[in-house]
Amino acid sequence: MQFPIDKFQHLRTPFYYYDTALLDQTLNAIRQQLLPNYHVHYAIKACTHPEVLRHIQESGLGADCVSGGEIEVCLRAGFPAGKIAFAGVGKSDWEIELALQTDIFCFNVESIPELEVINQLAKKHGKVARVAFRINPNVGAHTHEYTTTGRAENKFGIAMEDMVGTIQRCQAMSNVECIGLHFHIGSQILDMEDFSTLCLRINELQEVLESYRIVLPHINVGGGLGIDYEDPDLHPLPNLEAYFSTFKRYLQLRPGQQLHFELGRAIVGQCGSLISRVLYIKQGAVKQFVIIDAGMTDLIRPALYGASHKIQNLSSQEGSEVYDVVGPICESSDVFAKDCPLPLTTRGHLIALRSAGAYGQIMASQYNCRTLPLGYTSESL
Ligand SMILES: *Cc1c(COP(=O)(O)O)cnc(C)c1O
User: Fold this and answer.
1) Residue 152 has pLDDT above 70, yes or no
2) Within 6 Å (CB) of ligand 1, which residues are found?
3) Best exposed site among 5, 195, 314, 370 by fewest CB in 10 Å?
4) What residues form DSSP beta bridges with 84?
């Protein structure tokens, strides 16, 4: 990726930089993989930068929301309500009412108590809510403990065994209509076998449902496709061909069934970088530290999940040293990388933390009374 370093010089650091050309390239590559009955919803919790949202919305994707606030942001960004899915284990009444009033595409329901409340509120507003059940397929995604969501012990979804009973309960209610099944097994998944296993589980489940004469028009397989954090320049795009072909090959859809995907990281991860300035080089007893002006408040993934982002010195390629790259926050977990090989780095150099487009800026906090980082796009600079 080429960075407009001259334009960076007078900006206050740290800030996020989004390369919209790469974003568009990713969106085009996704479009090329889609069959007529495939629908992609962007998981907007990954990044809500307005310009990023505009590109995604204009490319024709729908949205996947996990809160009322996200539904509001999507509608404001121009996503049609009919393309919004709403997931989450703890939907508040006002969030459900907002979704009912704006007539979104579908609620992804995670429990019977939630279904009852949706039915009640829909009745109050004279609506029929379209719902899909989020099923926990007990597929262990080979990813971090905190980013796997489809295993039996996770809080997400309804167990496979309770599926038929839940759909029958739903069919007996007056103001909800069950239109589909929803799955989401985790995030940053690079092993396509996790997705092919998911497909086989869905196939089994569809057969069970058919024996009860239940055929639902929509299958939603969630998101989770991972990106290359180690070498973003080698793989600026996620492996979309492998991902979509796994579903084309293994998932047995019934005639007319629509297939939905909810991708977040795969769409925006690689186009974003966190740009920071070096404050000090500190010689410790056993380590050399590069202290930068970005911290875990700006990019929490390393502290939260032990994630690692490629670190690039944008100001110099000369020399080679090994550093721990750390932020200014008063927490020992405020470390971006240990024993990281970098060119000889000095105060004032610009540093890029790569692949930070997803779950970066959106997770920023004001801990230590810091200012939230701004976000610029390649077009806006
Ligand atoms: C977070 C989330 C996604 C997107 O996950 P990615 O790993 O970013 O693709 C999709 N669906 C649901 C229900 C989610 O919570």
Assistant:
1) no
2) 43, 45-46, 64, 66, 87, 184, 187, 222-225, 262-266, 358
3) 5
4) 63
